[in-house]
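__Record contents__

***
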Amino acid sequence: MNVRDKVVRAAVRLFAEKGFEATTVREIVEEAGVTKGGLYHYFESKDDLLFEIYTAMLRMQTRRMVTIAESDLPLPERLHAIVTDVVVTSIADLDAATVFFQSFPLLEKSKQVQVRAERRTYHERVRDLVAEGQRTGVFRDDVPADLVINYHYGAIHRLGMWYHADGSLSGEQVGEHFANLMLRSLRP
């Protein structure tokens, strides 16, 4: 693992465990086993490191979502796969997901704007799939597509508050349940 990845992994673990504000740069470099110079070679500040955690997860999940959305699968299967995937990938890196959802208000305002725009792009693409299904009669159309997305993704954003790897459900099982709940709520 290179220095940059070591720093990010250490920051994710410490931010999830202690919180962004309570974690010092010194603790990050000690945890990563690198020098301050190594950290500052890649990140100008602790805030930049937090921003990287946000954008890395969001970029990865967006790439995966677009691949599924543009596939030839029937619309309900695409939506099911997308919801399952975002849950599974969030649980697979639950510390990063926890940091992502709990520390957002601590980001510098200009970076919050950028993250919101990227997250909105993700949500709008998924919302467009719901709206397409509503227009074509595949999904019920009496609930606005925006409300469907906000409701379900709001629940997904809370995974870090209650999910535990040693619990009775795997990430894949939770993903399947979330996707099934969304699709059942959209049945005509």
